[in-house]
């Protein structure tokens, strides 16, 4: 078997004028990403996602990957990650190289699963897994005024038992947002917060101590991703667990997070971390050092599918089945047709559970007519 075709498909969709949405760093109107479609000589098609703009992914693929991927046996996929660090030298750790690699890697695993008739999570070494616990990623900052309670009220009505909210815009606003979320979610729900790296260590520590009474499961990106000494300072001075990883790329960046004990939870994004091959290495490193793994997901439906399969494969170590700490998967609740419309059967996170596809590969069927509607060449 060999790969005979590699196509990068840029996608984008924009909110109406004046309806920006985002985090403590600012607002945006456009959601953009890139799908990768592979086809083999026997007609098997694999899908992946490179979570980066199409023009950049296309150029990176053409420059660094196309010649080596065309004619490659998809079962050799794990060699791609290794070679990305050494050939060409020095480029392997960059976000765009890792994003392009991610899309190709996931598409190869999709092909492999379809070829052997197994879902990807079983190929990665996971036990049989049928459901995950989704958490609503919500309470975004918005350009237009919106009562902060509304997103959480919707999440509760949809049956979510866990949620992550945006904070990081100032001490008083942080406390109010967390207080409101906890009140509406109830005492038993898991509540996480995301500062998106908008604080200096002292600011993050002040907020972290103030919201501790609301039983926050983790604080995501309290300081910028490059501020490793800041992570160390915050972690040493608060009791709430720290999570990070959406802005880290490849095994070596995650190794520093794990080895230096900078975080309690690593969050690889399957569209940027290097794909399923790198994510498996990252998970092995993390669980070996007793660091939790919870994938970051803000992708299209293809990236969601990759994250679902990966999450279903992660070892529960050191827990037994008797410890009530389920694998949680982020599920963005903002409007995004790139997530909700490009599969023939979209993922449904409502009701407190998320089904893990058991069909071969990623277990999804891409609606190529919908992909064409949002194509942005």
From TrEMBL:
Segments of this protein annotated with the region Disordered: 342-377
SMART domains the UniProt entry points to: MR_MLE (SM00922)
A Pfam match: MR_MLE_N
Highest taxon in the source lineage: Archaea
Positions of the Mandelate racemase/muconate lactonizing enzyme C-terminal domain: 145-241
InterPro entries xrefs: DgoD-like, Enolase-like_C_sf, Enolase-like_N, Enolase_C-like, Mandel_Rmase/mucon_lact_enz_CS, Mandelate_racemase_C, Mandelate_racemase_N_dom
Keyword hit for NADP: no
Keywords, alphabetical: Lyase
GO molecular function, one term: lyase activity
One GO BP annotation of this record: amino acid catabolic process
Protein name stated in the entry: Mandelate racemase/muconate lactonizing enzyme family protein
């Amino acid at each position: 078997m060999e790969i005979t075709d590699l196509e990068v498909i840029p996608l984008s969709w924009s909110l109406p004028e004046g309806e920006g949405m985002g985090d403590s760093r600012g607002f945006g109107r456009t959601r953009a990403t890139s799908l990768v479609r592979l086809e083999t000589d026997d007609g098997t098609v694999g899908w992946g996602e490179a979570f980066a703009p199409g023009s950049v992914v296309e150029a990176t693929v053409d420059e660094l990957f196309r010649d080596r991927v065309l004619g490659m046996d998809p079962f050799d996929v794990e060699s791609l990650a290794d070679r990305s660090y050494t050939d060409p030298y020095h480029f392997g750790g960059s976000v765009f190289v890792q994003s392009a690699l991610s899309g190709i890697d996931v598409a190869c695993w999709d092909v492999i699963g379809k070829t052997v008739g197994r879902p990807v999570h079983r190929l990665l070494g996971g036990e049989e897994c049928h459901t995950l616990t989704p958490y609503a990623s919500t309470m975004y900052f918005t350009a237009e005024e919106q009562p902060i309670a509304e997103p959480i009220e919707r999440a509760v009505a949809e049956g979510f038992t866990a949620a992550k909210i945006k904070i990081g815009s100032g001490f008083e606003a942080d406390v109010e947002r967390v207080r409101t979320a906890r009140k509406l979610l109830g005492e038993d729900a898991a509540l996480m917060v995301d500062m998106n790296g908008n604080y200096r260590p002292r600011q993050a520590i002040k907020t972290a101590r103030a919201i501790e009474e609301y039983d926050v499961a983790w604080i995501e990106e309290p300081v910028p991703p490059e501020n490793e000494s800041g992570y160390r300072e915050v972690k040493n001075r608060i009791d709430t667990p720290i999570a990070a990883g959406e802005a880290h790329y490849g095994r070596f960046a995650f190794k520093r997070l794990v080895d230096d004990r900078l975080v309690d939870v690593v969050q690889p994004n399957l569209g940027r971390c290097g794909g399923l091959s790198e994510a498996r290495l990252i998970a092995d490193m993390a669980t070996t050092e007793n660091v939790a793994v919870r994938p970051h997901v803000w992708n299209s439906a293809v990236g969601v599918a990759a994250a679902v399969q990966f999450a279903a494969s992660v070892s529960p170590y050191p827990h037994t089945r008797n410890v009530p700490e389920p694998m949680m998967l982020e599920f963005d609740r903002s409007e995004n047709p790139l997530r909700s419309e490009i599969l023939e059967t979209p993922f449904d996170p409502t009701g407190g559970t998320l089904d893990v596809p058991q069909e071969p590969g990623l277990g999804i069927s891409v609606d190529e007519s919908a992909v064409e509607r949002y194509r942005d060449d």
